Records
---
Amino acid sequence: MRWRPLGLALAATAALIALPATHPSAGAADIPLSQGKTATASSVENAGTAPGKAVDGDTGTRWSSAAGDDQWLRVDLGATASVTRVELDWEAAYGKDYKVQISGDGSTWTDLRSVTGSDGGADTLDVSGRGRYVRMLGVHRATPYGYSLWEFRVFGGVDGGQAGCDSGNAAKGRPATASSTENAGTPASAAFDGDTGTRWSSRAADPQWLQVDLGAVRDLCKVDLNWEAAYAKDFRIQASADGQNWSTLKSVTGATGGTASYDVSGSGRYLRIYGTARGTGYGYSLWEVAVHTGTSGLPPVQGGGDLGPNVIVVDPSTPNLQQKFDDVFARQESAQFGTGRYQFLLKPGTYNGLNAQLGFYTSISGLGLNPDDTQINGDVTVDAGWFNGNATQNFWRSAENLAITPSGGTDRWAVAQAAPFRRIHVKGGLNLAPNGYGWASGGYIADSKIDGTVGPYSQQQWYTRDSSVGGWTNGVWNMTFSGVQGAPATNFDTGPYTTLDTTPVSREKPFLYLDGSAYKVFVPAKRTNARGVSWPANAGTSLPLDRFYVVKPGATAATINAALAQGLNLLFTPGVYHLDQTLDVTRPDTVVLGLGLATLVPDNGVDAMHVADVDGVRLAGFLIDAGPVNSGTLLRIGTPGAGADHSANPTTMQDVFIRVGGAGPGLATDSVVVDSDDVVIDHTWIWRADHGSGVGWDTNRADYGLRVNGDDVLATGLFVEHFNKYDVYWSGERGRTIFFQNEKAYDVPNAAAVTHDGIVGYAAYKVADSVTTHEAWALGSYCNFTADPSIVQTHGFQVPVTPGVRMHHLMVISLGGKGQYAHVVNNTGAPTSGTDTVPSKVTSFP
């Protein structure tokens, strides 16, 4: 449940009225190490109770969690500290039993104190420990609500003594903005130019603010203000990691202007002066603002920089351009489980006579804001000569954000899974089959315009979203369209087509582009009931590259996490990254974008990535490859029991692929777990390997592909294959899937190994018995039980029989008679029929 019933919310409000406006504590005279630092939490009740409210020094603001146990609040002290005391100032919704823990890396935690039977109010705990991160971990709540803290204070000393204060001005010359300016001669930048003869001034109104971007999160120790005659009587000095959520470092009342210095304690990338009451009838006016930062501790992680050795940036005049593509293709054509990773970036312009053949782990993208900014008069080609004309293993490559005028009128894109084709304008036709029309098993198109006809030919299944096509011919089993202009009409009863007029929720993948000579990342806006391409309108926002930590091979997980804690986004350049700790994405709207199928490998059984239950995280364009020691969950989005409403700004997972085995032994209990509500999964291939090295029923064991616990989750283009138990297990309410492709595990040793609850085989797609509302379209499951062809699986799909659960266009297929299905869904649908690979279908259920 997302929100309290109105009556309970009013009762809670009434209880709060009786509380004093401030809540003093025994240590109020000291400045906590935690004040103004970056705080994160397992969940938030609403936008007004963010984690930073518990460390802002303001005892009238608070953090509160969702209504569930096992919630936590964490503060990053910015450097290793010796912690001696922790104070918790509880709101009426307090923790009866909880732990205070410390960590050096944000992943491995040590208990400082376990508290049982707390009665709320102010808890002061004397502790002893060293670490950078301190958290309150709730065990049992005292009320039906969540956990709520007015303030969470951590005291002690930073290693090596308190940080000194640099005499330099970290704000000088940095980008500045303001709520207003009096005129063109008093811009915000004039307060940070080092010239005491120029000034910023605002219009004559309260409140007004002046803000500077320091370029990275910094430890802040002092701010110098040089006021012009129009000064602030009352104002706040505030800091923020992201420029949106602010912590107050100092509140000043009754100031008299002139020159003043203020000692502060906190951290942030952005600092602002927020005026609440003017000292004169004019606006606010500052000659200069100087910001001083700490001199001890680790230096901040810097954003921006070059894109590393495996990003190949070209323009139409680049010498030997064709040779560059040919050289990479020669290395990558058959390197299915190799370590090479490459990204071609094409600057805007016209490229004549180019044939960009793409092998494994190779991506090509235009650097214009629109696809037509980058024109290829030639081809972007995927074929299957390396595999004797069989395209069923043409995985892990991509094309994006460019226009193609094919040399022969039709471009060839003969791919299988994990090979997205996004934001492409094909000025001709598109052939999805290999030369010779051998087997093919793809595929995915989004936000693309194909002027001519798309010919799938031997393609077994395909999903196309929010695009336009000049025509579409044939297809084998499952051709699905949503929001596609020119798509063929539904004919599932007699043919392969499922067509939905619009896509209910979509948001295109973030992409890198050039704005003049500066790299930026465009983050598209959410669309509802979309039909056709999103360009050239391009609703969304642009982020400069200095807002990203550009991750290059050799970067450590600790550095990546430090960058995230500073408020930076992540741009992974092509490479393989071994992680010895989980990557924690905790800030709303964080972008994690990979180039060239950048690959994350968790070592020693850690999880690869956790995403907090926050708004608007974008995960896109990377591969997670399970390590040889079992990981509990490779990717987790949200936290158990999460219930916040993210419908206005959902987290998206796009072209994020999971692999367990194939490149070597890999183990994971769960591959992807979605606990947050409203998540959009837009094209993923979650694969337990059926070939390669390290493959065997127990060698690369992985029980579950995708588990969805959050409500209102939408999957568009869902490919999940070969897991030891359920490939998809969906227990959240109001879930929706448009297109699902599955093969059951080939290597099931015998029927007994997968028999449970009187059922032979785990369903490819199971909706939990507790679910009352769920809907899905165009789902296919295929069996190829090569280890024991005598297995007869009970069904491909299993759902509760209730009016709110509606399944459309289901099919099961026996591939060459290697095993069979007895039914399609539950006990409904005809069995598969021997060796003929003809689908057994159910048009609607129930």
Note: The first strand starts at residue 38 and ends at 41.
---
Amino acid sequence: MSAEPDGPEGRLRRFATIWSRAIFPVTATSLTRPEFEQQLVPLARRLRDALQERVFDAKQGQAVGAALIDTHCTDPEALSRTLDCVDAYLVLYCGGDGPREELRARSARVQHAVAAGFAQALRERTLAEQEAISRAALSARSAVAEALHASEARFRAVFHGAAIGIGIADLDGTILEVNDALIRMFGGLESNVRGRNAAEWTHPDDSPHVWKLYEELVRGEREHYRVEKAFYRPDGTVLWTNLTVSLLRDADGLPQYQLALMEDTTERRLLNLRLRYEATHDALTGLPNRTLFFERLEKALAAGDGARFGLCYLDLDGFKTVNDSLGHAAGDRLLVEVADRLQSCATAPGEMVARLGGDEFVALTTGTDTETEVDELAGRIMNALAAPIRVEGRELTVRGSIGIVEGPAGERGAADVLRSADITMYRAKSAGGNRYELADPEADARAITRHGLTTALPAALERGEFFIEYQPLVHLGDGSVRGAEALVRWLHPQHGVIGPDRFIPLAEHTGLIVPLGRWVLEESVRQARLWEGRVLDGGATGPLRVNVNLSPMQLTHPGLVSDTVDILEREGLEPGGLCLEVTESALIGADDDLLKPLRRLAEMGVDIALDDFGTGYSNLANLRRLPVSVLKLDRSFTQSMQHFPADPVDLKIVEGIVSLAHSLDLAVTVEGVETGAQADQLRELGCDTAQGWYYARPGPPDQLHELALADAIS
């Protein structure tokens, strides 16, 4: 069945039609335009795939550029029109429903890849043609030698009829004969070439070995050589050629003449330079792009002893706000102005500025004293951004965060240097922005470790690397164990046991906290049910309650209530055996929608504890509207009670909180109890339960059973 006219395939073919109409007039092909369009359809499909792929692959675009050469689209105008079509229509017809900003950025990268593939394929085709010319040149040498010995007429026919430039010189280098093609290369006058000496045609771009090869040839030490060489024309312009010089010997085998074959490659070289420029420079700002920057950085890092480098990694603060409020056109004008200002900051030898993409720029300085130079460069950049930029009649204040990496060459690779600069830049941004920070290896290591832990979290849950320790909750009145708080740990293969303070924020950031929290709840409820059976058998008066922490992200998850009910029913634990702890900060200003799941759980009989109470500065009057039954007093209020006498102010505060809580029918639990004096003081103040190292450190579930059994026996 054919694709719908307005479906993805239909839009793809519409793009192929526009493309074929644009480049068919400049394509050397015997096909009709509809036939040529059919050849472009699979290429258009590859462009669409490159645009829509999750991870950009430059090989798709490069393959399209190379395929253009295979379809005889070798005219530079064909490439120019192709890039125009991709820029104007690829996102429109092949972009799908993706974000336009990202698609436009991806389209620019696709264009660069197509240009690079076109240039590489054209270069390979050129090399193949040059090889054919070389073979023709060698054949011509044999033919010329034979003609000199056999027939002057045949020699003249080959010599003057050749399409490439041919010249004959004696061993001293004096030009004796030239054909019409060579004369045209040098301006059309025979006097510009004939009679001159080859030694006069030196050029500053000559590689050092060119004249060494020439000397070896005239001495008879080699038969021929081939080089790329530039010549000055009489009008001062430069002629670039592929030059093949061969030695002609007489009948006795002695050197007699030089035969030079020249192919004019000036236009091809200019095209390659243009394509190279487009492939290595940012289309919007004209600055070097990521490709060229990495080439320069790798060269700087490969310099010899004593060489150093300094790198400034800049990211504009709040640039997304400009795009969202004023539009991408205004954002582009802002980036162009920023690029101009940055360019003016890096004018000294060894300095360069590049745009990596989006609003990220880099500045590189090299030399022997980059420790001072990179600081000065960063200062110039911050000063350059200080003045407002006028865009669409508005003056925009530009702020930037800079990460600086400086050091000796040869110690690190380009990717490591840029990663360190990126990490440092984000450290400057997190410190408030509009500043620069120096790279710190320890901070880099911590950031890399955080990243490694973040990426390892999903697999860690699947492999069962998490385990739970339990810290007893003790009744202050009679000292009996009433339950325990479940505390999750990560047994990392390399880092050992990792506490929740290190990986819970990472899990919340990645969204893994929901499945991890569900696992912790399920394991804790199962353990509470085991305790219930064992402790009752041992003679205890009631079940042990388990406290499980909930993160703010779990509170907003729609499956919180259903998951909790399902786990309790599946494990056979009564709702009263579970207490869910929620931090005070998570409930500050909470609306009814956020509180609704907690109210439903509380109505079922699940206890809700307000954890870290006293750290969130909440309005105490709001306690009445929260579905909580327990206040867990933060340890900061009771630290002064570890020794006698306690701070009277802290005593008054705790006494007031306990009195308020009891008046609202709320139980009070205290965390961080570490001494007997502290426990006695809290008991006198009326606190209900406590936990801390004074009673037991977090440990395996059997520890709690032993404590509870001891209480039952006593």
Note: The chain is about 50% helix and 20% strand.
